[in-house]
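anyone seen this seq b4? input:
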Amino acid sequence: MVAFSIIGTIVWIICLIANIKLAIKKNRSVAAWVVLSIFFSWIALIILAILKPLPSKEEVDQLKREVDQLKANQNQ
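predicted toks r here
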């Protein structure tokens, strides 16, 4: 019985670490995925693996600048 507890804990910790690394890679909220991983370890990992990455802050800022430039050009 103790062996199953130890193995389960090790698998849970591995899923937690994998969720953290994957959340960082996909520009997702690490804190949110840690909480989800605590309660739904491998299920959260599968969901996070399926989700597409969010754009980085730099990409969002670049798109905002482009939109602002387009708006400025339309007003001229």
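The longest helix spans residues 2-25. Residues 2-75 form one domain. kinda curious what u guys think
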